[in-house]
Design goal:
181 residues; mainly beta; Jelly Rolls; six-stranded antiparallel beta sheet; three-stranded antiparallel beta sheet; 2 helices; 39% strand; binds 6-phosphogluconic acid; binds nickel (II) ion; isomerase; gluconeogenesis; RmlC-like_jellyroll; glycolysis; RmlC_Cupin_sf
């Protein structure tokens, strides 16, 4: 049987395989944003992003690949742009590709020594995320930011390290422009 990945997000693959939909609301992003007062004042049911994932093999399978399309909505919490939770992979050496199909954003990456840097995302931009590297995306534009992702099916997600220690630099909106501080 031939598996065809979703081209954009169709809700299912062309051969009819279901795509998993995950919705992340503000309430799922506790301890992610700097400005706790602004966070507490916001609507916790506000959808920040949705991820449509095609998982053709079982999670944890060695040698397989997963495909995901993330739609990150525009917005801010205090001075910070809406962003993904961010994670290292549980199997730390597992790498990943991101590529932007729509919108404007920044991909933040942080290595194990807590060095943080960013790559600008724009339609067509391709981003290689090496192993041992935490990754998070912020929407710096006025519209939706959509990006595809491809990662190994045994990579897993370590969110706890980021919830606890964060990234060493934050992307703030300074006079409407993104600044990594
Ligand atoms: C992954 C990918 C990607 C990511 C989403 C949402 O490893 O699965 O990096 O699909 O999960 O963009 O970001 P968070 O997983 O950090 O919430
Ligand atoms: Ni990942």
């Amino acid at each position: 049987m031939i598996h065809q990945p979703p081209v954009h997000f169709l809700g299912k693959t062309l051969t009819g395989q279901p795509v998993q939909k995950q919705v992340r609301k503000l309430k799922d992003l506790d301890n992610i944003f700097l400005d706790q007062a602004a966070f507490s004042a916001a609507d916790m049911n506000r959808v920040v992003y949705e991820v449509f994932s095609y998982l053709p093999v079982d999670e944890g399978t060695e040698g397989g690949l997963f495909f995901g399309m993330t739609h990150l909505y525009p917005g801010t919490v205090g001075q910070e742009f809406y962003m993904t939770k961010g994670h290292f992979h549980t199997i730390e050496n597992r790498a990943e590709y991101y590529w932007c199909v729509e919108g404007e954003g920044m991909l933040l990456m942080m290595d194990k020594h807590r060095n943080t840097w960013a790559e600008q995302m724009q339609p067509g931009s391709l981003h290689y995320i090496d192993g041992y590297t935490a990754h998070r995306v912020a929407n710096t534009g006025g519209g939706i930011l959509s990006f595809g992702a491809c990662w190994p099916s045994d990579a897993g997600h370590d969110y706890a390290t980021i919830v606890k220690n964060g990234f060493s630099r934050r992307l703030l909106s300074v006079e409407g422009k993104p600044a990594l501080v």
